[in-house]
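Title: Prediction job returns without error message
Component: structure pipeline
Severity: low
Priority: P3
Assignee: unassigned

Description:
Job completed but the reporter wants confirmation the result is attached to the right record. Sequence as submitted:
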Amino acid sequence: MIGISIKNFSIAFGDNEILNDISFDVQAGEIVTILGPSGCGKSTILRSISSLESGYTGSIFLNETCLLNGANKCNKDIGYIFQDYALFPHLNVKENIEFALFKLKANERQKRVDKLLKQFDLVEHKNKQIHELSGGQQQRVSIARVIAYEPKILLLDEPFANLDSILRAKTKFWLKNLIKELGLSAILVTHDQKEALSMSDKIGIIHNKRIVQFDTPKNIYKNPNSFYIANFLGEVNTLPKFIAEDLNLDLSKTSIIRIHETKITNKANNYKLNIVNRLYCGEYEEVILSFEKELKSQIKLRVYIDSDISLEEEIYLDINKDKIIEVNN
């Protein structure tokens, strides 16, 4: 069942067009990530779904039956998790969660809150004030408060932005499992490529006010339809024209290879390289090299400390044609 359906969505603020002709679906139990740089309009989609923005053209359907058009609203089905958590500082953990359940009878409300405190591992923190919690605990309270009223749709606006890298990784797995367990239709907006790849069932990439590719993380990563998308999802090296000619590649396209798949060798071949710069990064060195045949063409790669490659000897590009991706400019 389709939980959210966006059809031909466009929005402008005055004369400033933000998004143009955006369309995608989110199935029940599916996580769709809208990925793009800061300021591209990602959060505007969430705000429009939740009726915090109006004046758009196109249609937004919830669970195939509820059309949001500025007059027909279904906010009770929507849970919205903000980047700053939006918790009430004057209420403790238990009271923050209870706030979403004020319409329930006292005994039913207590049962629901106790269940959520246990589910979100917050029992021992239930009487603490918000400022006494860690960032990860605050986020769990924020999510518990949203889940309390049993929404069918979950909107996540940069939910991991305020967490450190270790806590972010742990929380991603936990939240993804929770969404699957509850069968929610979820939209995540982020500018973090790794976050999108690891969390999503589908990814829509916004560029120049449109979704330029919408597919599974693996398909987008392996088969980007443009140089912009390939480079946005992870740094790439552009191969010089003389290599494309040698390998009989399509010269009308840009030939790229991802940095982690760019290899070098000390065995001589036609693609000799010279070191331009090298940075020590602990377990590896990041090395920038130029081609002896074409000095303006440079590539970047990582040489790990346990590699048998010597950077003190002559270096050559060790090209694997199967790793090359040909993309439109």
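Comment from assignee: result matches the submitted record. The chain has a mean pLDDT of 90.
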